[in-house]
Amino acid sequence: MKKKFVVVVLILSLGTFMGLKIKVDRIKREKIPGASIIYIPSGKYLKYTTFGYSSLLADLIYLWAIQYYTTYTVVNRFEHLDHIFSVISELDPHYLDPYEIGAMIAIYEARDINLAYKILDRGLEKNPDQWIFPFQAAHYAQMISRDYALAREYYKKTMEIEGAPTITKRLYASAAYKIADYQTAWDTWLDVFNNAEDERVKKIADNHLYQVKSAMDIQAIHETIEKYKQRYGRNPANLSQLVRSGILNILPQDRDGKDYLYDPQKGEVKAASIPWKR
Amino acid sequence: MKIRVIASNTFKEAIRDRILYLLLFFAAVCIAFSRLLALLTVGDRVKIIKDVGLGSLSLFGALMAILMGTGLVYKEIDKKTVYTILSKPIHRYQFLLGKYLGLILTLFIMLLLMSFIFLALVFFHSFTIEWKLLIAVVYIFIEICLITAVALLFSCFSTPILSSIFSLSFYLIGHTSWGLENSINKMNSGIGKILIQILYTFLPDLENFNFKTEVVHNLPIPSEIFLYSFIYGTFYSVFLLALAMLVFRKKDFT
Amino acid sequence: MNAVLKISDLHKSFKSGFIPRKKEILRGISLDVGEGEIFGYLGPNGAGKTTTLKCILGLIFPDKGNIEIFGLPHLSLEAKEQIGYLPENPYFYDYLTASEFLHFCCQLTLIAKKERKKKIEALLRLVGLESSTHLQLRKFSRGMLQRIGLAQALIHEPSLVFLDEPLGGLDPLGRKEIRDIIVRLKEEGKTVFLCSHILQDIEMICDRVAIIVNGEISSQGKLKDLIAEEILFTEIVLSGVDDQKLRRLGDAVFAHGEKILLKVYQEEKIDQVLRLVQSEKGTIHSLIPRTETLEDLFVDMVKKG
Question: Under CATH, which architecture does the C231-292 domain have?
Fold first, then answer.
């Protein structure tokens, strides 16, 4: 066959199929998101089937996942988020980024905070030395779902891991305070106060101790006021009346030694100072 | 006419090749295995059978095309049977086309056999002959025609092992080029982006022939894609065959 | 002379090795083959015989030079219709039977469908394979493959037949049969181009020869022109004579048991030998005058090249 003829056919067919490719690309086809990945089975045997390339495979799937989940045109793409990140974890449990990113996607894109917890829990389970996972989980609990009890648990877990930042303790104490677990809060802040590494931290601890003490005291005083009300049918005119009536032994003072302020009309007690303005 | 002679001879030789039947056996095993999987799944059982079945057809069809295609021309050169043929009054392009068409015919028959087993199994589960599945099978065949053309091209100048690796790479690239598309969209405009776009358009897009998901989930398929994919497949194959001819026409058989 | 095959200034080199080094195989081959003659193409291993043949058949593309077959360009289909080729160490599709294979070959040429069966039978008979008509080629012996190769080269009755080492691997009886077939072809008016190492056979049947050494034709022409007709020496095998006496008459006296082989270079000395044997009451077993053989010419040419 003449060379010229073959070359002409070559160029024509090249042009045609390239042109068609552009055309076909524009046709919208319904996609089942992640259809190809769904059949990767998860489970402890997955690693053995990948012939030693499990770490590489984990990288590739992770890369795919990032591309996929940031492609906003694919709606309903979160159906298999859990599965995919569990597969990545199976293949390379010590690959830390996917846990964090997976949780982030779960929260900000899929709006499924429980999935985020699940992913971070898994991260901690496979990597018990990584305090970042419960730390992040605590933050999510605190900032997004305002679930301080859960946050407190996570802070506790974080604290138990060596190398956790010192602020964890303080966050733990704060969380405890938020759920009104004043005893834990006090104990922890006291610990921080006694072991403070510098003046700044000591001051912070001091302020918080003030706050907790105030809260505890005010709670106690309010209980007493209730008892007074039950007995005498009205609010006490001032706090010393509580002592005189015998319901309260000693009138507690705040950490600075000042008295608490009392509003007899509302029956409310307040601390004398704002903790961080002392 | 002479193309037909070579084609029928190639067909006779290919249909006797044990590799085909080995792969056919494995395909049948996979399809049968899907029945087992179907028992374990909760919900729509037939779906797994369809998915595994179509997947097997596609995978084993591609393997057959690669394993047999890479030996097509190489074996003739290696065993020197090509001397006798090309010294006769026949053009080299007729020889090439004959080999290609002979193998395509063989693969068509193999695919037909596999489809029969597959449809039979689906029938046992859903008690209907699901003709719609054949749409996916037809396009699997077109994909196989493309892969065979690639294997033939490499067979003209490379040993079977290397050719198989190249053909397999072609297959993998063909199924993952959409990843390149995603990356292009995130690139900054410029010369680099244009070059990569040209590369992307040139690389084979075997996903154009992939209707497995749509057929199994009963999703609507836009009708123009049938025609365009078909033409795409045809012209890409023609391109590869023309390339093979260019390589083969001035080859010295030492 | 009507040149059936005309090669002019054929050049071919190959690049080989990791760092491509050009190796010249054919350095300007020119030869003519006339109609109706048996042409012998000889040369030591690696000289370029097979390369030349492959160039003629379109299996290799020369760098330079021109090849014409019956005046047509050698790659054209019309030219190919008129030639037949038997490759060295033939290998064919081994799952076909003899008749299926010949049938396949017929389909590639212009033989009419209804004539195929007749021709196939005739040819199988010619090469002595009619008992193996339905035997698969994979079961053929080397000699049988050679014969079926010859059959496929002749099936379409080509006017020019190329045979590459057709007599290799055959027993003496087989060689005689093939030689007879080749001579018969000549009688039918066909031209034969023969590559062979077996010089005795070439000498027996060829009209013209060309000797290729190191990619060049070192001599070409009619056999009888190339080989001098004069007698080189006479070999006499005798017994019963004291070999000391023979030493003056001839050269290189070898004793083999009782018999002595004497090479006599001068014609006059032959009579002296005969008279000596008579007088000593010895026996002459044989007396053979030796002319230059093709082998001598061949070795000579190779040494020069």
Answer: 2-Layer Sandwich (3.30)
B225 CB neighbours in chain A (<8 A) are 24, 27, 29
Flag if B222 and A29 touch (Cβ within 8 Å): yes
Do B69 and B61 form a contact (C-beta atoms < 8 A)?
no
- Give ranges for CATH 3.40.50.300 in chain C: 3-226
**pLDDT (tens digit per residue) in B10-63:** 999 898 888 888 888 888 888 888 777 777 666 667 777 887 888 888 889 999
Give A-chain residues touching B213 at CB under 8 angstroms.
31-32, 35
Count Cα neighbours of A149 within 13 Å in the Cβ-side half-sphere.
Answer: 1
Q: Write the burial class of residue C258 (CB in 10 Å: 0-12 exposed, 13-18 middle, 19+ buried).
A: exposed
A1, A64, A67 member nearest B91 (Cβ): A1
Report how many Cβ contacts below 8 Å link chain B to chain C.
69
Q: Which ipTM score applies to this complex?
A: 0.82
> CB distance B213–A35 less than 8 Å?
yes
What three-state secondary structure class fits C77? Answer: helix
> Which residues 39-58 of A have a C-beta within 8 angstroms of B?
39
Nearest neighbour of B232 by CB, restricted to A20, A29, A32: A20
Chain B partners within 8 Å of C110 (Cβ) = 89
Task: Decide if C65 contacts C7 (C-beta within 8 A).
Answer: yes
Dist. CA B160–CA B67, nearest whole Å: 8
Where in the sequence is the domain holding B162, given as residue range(s)? 2-249
Q: Within a domain: residue B42?
A: yes
At A53, the amino acid letter reads Y
CA neighbor of C109 nearest in space, from C73, C85, C134, C140: C85
Q: At B90, which helix (H) or strand (E)? A: none
The reported pLDDT for the residue numbered A49 is 65
More confident residue, B190 or B45: B190
Distances in Å between the Cα of A251 and the Cα atoms of A182, A218, A241, A263, A272 are 19, 11, 10, 15, 14
> Which of chain A's residues have a Cβ under 8 Å away from the Cβ of B219?
30, 32
Q: Which two tokens stand for residue A149?
A: 């009890």
B182:A25 CB<8 A? no
CB-nearest to C61 from B80, B81, B252 is B252
Contacts of C81 in chain B (CB under 8 A): 89
Distances (CA, A) of B195 to B200, B201, C203: 9, 10, 68
- Whether this prediction's pTM lies above 0.80 is answered by no
B197 touches chain C (CB under 8 A): no
Tell me the nearest-neighbour CA distance from B129 into chain A, angstroms: 24
Determine the residue type at A244. R
Encode pLDDT of A85-139 as tens digits: 888 888 888 888 899 999 999 998 888 899 999 999 999 999 999 999 999 999 9
- Strand, helix or coil at A103? helix
Q: Report the DSSP beta bridge partners of residue B241.
A: none
CA distance B9 to C93: 9
Q: Say how many C-beta atoms besides its own lie within 10 A of residue A271's C-beta.
A: 20
Residue B254 lies in a domain: no
| Shortest alpha-carbon distance between residue C139 and chain B (Å) | 16
Which residues in chain B are contacts of C89 at CB distance < 8 A?
80
Question: Locate tokens 């160029």: which residue?
Answer: A11
CA B89/CA C75 separation, integer angstroms:
9
Number of other CB atoms surrounding residue C221 within 10 Å: 12
Count of the separate structural domains present in chain B = 1
Here the tokens at position A177 are 């305070």
> What single string gives the DSSP state of each residue in A52-79?
T-HHHHHHHHHHHHHHHHT-TTSTTTTT
Residue B219 placed within a domain:
yes
- Give, for C256, the enclosing helix (H) or strand (E): strand C251-256
In a domain, B6, yes or no: yes
Q: Is CATH 3.40.1160.10 correct for C3-226?
A: no
